[in-house]
Amino acid sequence: MRTPPRILVVDDNPANVDILRTRLAANGYEILTAADGEQALDAVRQHQPDLVLLDVMMPKLDGIEVCRRLRADASIPFVPIILVTAKSDPKDVVAALEAGGDEYLTKPVDQAALVARVKSMLRIKALQDTVLEWNHTLEQRVAEQLVQLERLDRLKRFFSPQLAELILAGGAEDPLKSHRRDVTVVFLDLRGFTAFAETTEPEEIMGVLRDYHAEMGRVILAHEGTLERFAGDGMMVFFNDPVPVPDPAARAVRMVLVMRDRLAELTAKWRKRGFDLGFGAGIAQGYATIGAVGFEGRWDYGAIGNVTNLAARLCGEAKPGQILIAQRVLASVEDLVEVEAVGELQLKGMLKPVPAFNLLGLKG
Fold first, then answer.
1. How far is the C-alpha of 62 from the C-alpha of 49, rounded, in Å?
2. What is the DSSP letter of 56?
3. Which of 322, 353, 349, 325 is closest to 337 using CA atoms?
4. How far is the CA of 1 from the CAs of 24, 49, 119, 296, in angstroms?
5. Which residues make beta-bridge pairs with 339?
6. Which of 288, 295, 320 is closest to 179 using CA atoms?
7. Please, which of 113, 163, 318, 350 could form a disulfide with 322 given CB 3.0 to 4.6 Å?
8. What is the per-residue pLDDT across 100-131, written as a single tens digit (0 to 9) for each?
């Protein structure tokens, strides 16, 4: 509500208007006037007063009809209405209140009663405005939170919940903006999956994939890895983006070793059902270009570069239960892990043979 409050006085008798205006102006209120019901409607729409003092007996439109129209117009914010008239019959009072009036004063108007009624109605107006402001603020916050939740849901497709929330809070740069980053990439898939898919019912294939994805997903989230994509039985995960970490290769190694243990449990169950599946993985480290890939309406978060190809090729060469790591990964974690050299591999798409190492486990 504005300061000072704005009051509209509506009466077809100029003398009555002067009396009310003088009494109210003495209390510091801003006063507007109207001489009939049609002027009153126009004045309310144009000036949006904080209170209306409305005479009942007027030409063109009487006060009760003006009151009805004001209450029926959804475009007009709530404004208290005090009806003023010489009629004092209870039926007239009931008719005025049913039309939407909030208070009733009889002529001649007592000054003390007038000021008291006006102050009371303005308090109600102030409370109403406060509630409306709170509601508006609440609606804005709810809308903002819905936007944040939608963004969070999108980000959780790729990042751990903690990391997604960090990005939304401004603790990380925009991950979808194209950028270069030195990352450790893990590629993993199921050995024997192609043959399994050719000889197994689709419902059973989907059941195996659900178990596999759920178990691997829990491990990825626990190690705060960034899931780049699912591709059937294949997954690509990387570390050091969108938030840099001091030990991306170590995180990747620990994650894959846990995955191998979990998959050993799963594959044992699958073998009891006649499904001969195994686990293989490849880990590489190097620079990749990372950011949004796709088109309007269908964007994904992706990493492109030789390091991703190397991880995928190492994974393709891994035997069941084997984790092959590149030489640069070994250089980052050699104090942490036990490995055995498998020699130089001529990988598809690679110009030179690539030294590879079988990750056995953590030292100690």
1. 19
2. S
3. 325
4. 17, 9, 13, 45
5. 359
6. 288
7. 318
8. 888 888 888 888 888 898 898 889 888 888 88
